[in-house]
Write a structure and sequence with these properties.
mainly alpha
């Protein structure tokens, strides 16, 4: 399959991009930086170049690939237009088997899994399903956002509990609201049902308490500033 995606790139990407990609050593420590440099050039190409690039990277990963490179790959794969993602599911499934979970990349890991409908390892899922969500940086928060993307009731239930628990602290609440809203917008882009996300955020559409901003407490935005536009975007 690697040669298939090379052929796809040769048809849809510039010759210089194909040459540079062939010369890249995916398991080298600096490979994440090379992917980062290549991505804007690939994006600038017309047609299916980005999807071919993501497919090539998917079949290049192995157990020796640095974590930073895995993260760069997942970011590239999530940038592929939604209409083309279905053609990459087999490639993404292959890559998923090579990606080891690292807590430091929880946000990217679970968002990638949610976009492509990939199954999280059972042991990891069990561990995080038993952890309460305390804040927007928690591993458990990102895991339950993933479940929300897949329409799993456990995700909405855990996130709803976290929002309610944080309601007395506007800064904590605002961070959680922003995280859920960004997930809902991504779900809308993917053509998925956003009703659970809308239901989670609707109670805060009139919350005009100001969060901490650059000028200190009370100088930032309010939860309502996030929820109102979000509900308009998704039609809630």
């Amino acid at each position: 399959m690697l040669e298939f995606y090379i052929a796809q790139m040769e048809q849809s990407c510039g010759a210089a991009i194909v040459r540079d990609l062939r010369e890249m050593q995916i398991n080298a420590a600096e490979s994440w930086s090379l992917i980062y440099d290549l991505e804007p050039r690939v994006r600038a190409e017309q047609g299916p170049c980005l999807g071919a690039f993501a497919g090539y990277l998917a079949y290049s990963l192995d157990g020796r690939t640095p974590v930073e490179t895995q993260r760069s790959f997942m970011s590239v794969a999530m940038a592929v237009p939604v209409a083309e993602q279905g053609d990459l599911r087999e490639a993404m499934g292959h890559a998923w088997g090579q990606i080891a979970y690292e807590p430091a990349q929880a946000q990217t890991y679970f968002q990638f899994a949610g976009v492509y409908g990939l199954q999280v390892p059972a042991e990891l899922a069990l561990r995080l399903s038993e952890q309460p969500v305390f804040g927007h940086r928690d591993e458990a928060f990102h895991y339950h956002r993933y479940l929300l993307m897949l329409g799993e009731v456990q995700g909405a239930r855990a996130l709803g509990g976290a929002l309610e628990a944080a309601s007395g602290d506007v800064d904590a609440l605002g961070a959680l609201v922003s995280g859920v809203a960004s997930t809902g917008i991504l779900m809308k882009k993917l053509g998925r049902d956003t009703s659970d996300a809308a239901r989670l955020l609707a109670p805060y559409r009139e919350d005009r308490r100001r969060m901490t901003g650059v000028n200190g407490p009370g100088s930032g935005g309010a939860p309502a500033d996030v929820v109102g536009p979000f509900l308009r975007i998704i039609g809630g």
